[in-house]
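Chapter review. Work through the record for Malonyl-[acyl-carrier protein] O-methyltransferase before attempting the end-of-chapter questions.
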Amino acid sequence: MRLPHRVLSSLDKKQVAYSFSRAARDYDRVAELQPVVAKHLLSKIQLGSNVGADDFCCDLGVGTGYAIPQLLKLLEPAQVLALDLAEGMLHICRQRHAEQGVHFLCADAETLPLANSSQSLIFSSLAIQWCPHPERLLQEIARVLKPGACAYLATLGPASLYELRDAWAELDDQPHVNRFLSAQDWLDCLPDSLRSCELEVQEQVLYYPDLPALMRSLKDLGANPVAGRQAAGLGGRARLQALAEIYEGYRQTQGLPLTYQTYYWVLKKSVK
Ligand SMILES: C[S@@+](CC[C@H](N)C(=O)[O-])C[C@H]1O[C@@H](n2cnc3c(N)ncnc32)[C@H](O)[C@@H]1O
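Structure tokens for Malonyl-[acyl-carrier protein] O-methyltransferase:
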């Protein structure tokens, strides 16, 4: 069976880590959507039982650590494990968050170097769309969560970046923009021990003055690696000019739109 997420499996993790490491220093300045999404995801956190000083909450794909202060406050006196694939992101995160009770770990969310049932909560905002093997990721989340604990995940849905994907599709059939899993794709990967408790879908549209500014924003965020791109490349100046002309067809009064469809997902691990 060829599941849609097989398309993602060619995503090169070294390239992902490199792009985010390179973007880390300026990430907070250019990240427009990310703080909004993290804030909304944080608002969903409910704690069924009290947490103690020995409890851990893992922020998977922590980036520069935008959510760390709020996680520490919400979960006090629990400790926060700031985990990211990109050394460069963790470096900035470590500089910004010297608070007590924060630990840093450079690791891959699909192969977590964490003990079974060791985490009282998992938080992950706009990171898991970079994981090419969603079944593996969800199995790892299920394995490391304590029984009865929850994972709060925000990720991008398939309508995200559709204007850019559709504009490229008028030029060629190569992959230029990542594809994102649908809610059903994610549900199909859910292990038996995880139950989906809530799924909220939102759409946000960002606007740019022109195509170079739009493309630069993706690059500055580190969000430019594309599964299978080695074969496609971006093309020369003439192709980018052709793309810009096509994209003009989407222009609105605020500028050139780029849509982000965000899934806010709450999963709970069974108690047995
Ligand atoms: C768009 S940033 C989001 C960062 C932060 N959560 C925020 O909301 O600002 C995505 C982050 O996920 C990390 N990431 C990507 N793939 C990962 C993986 N397989 N395991 C752990 N982190 C990963 C990247 O290095 C990057 O820091």
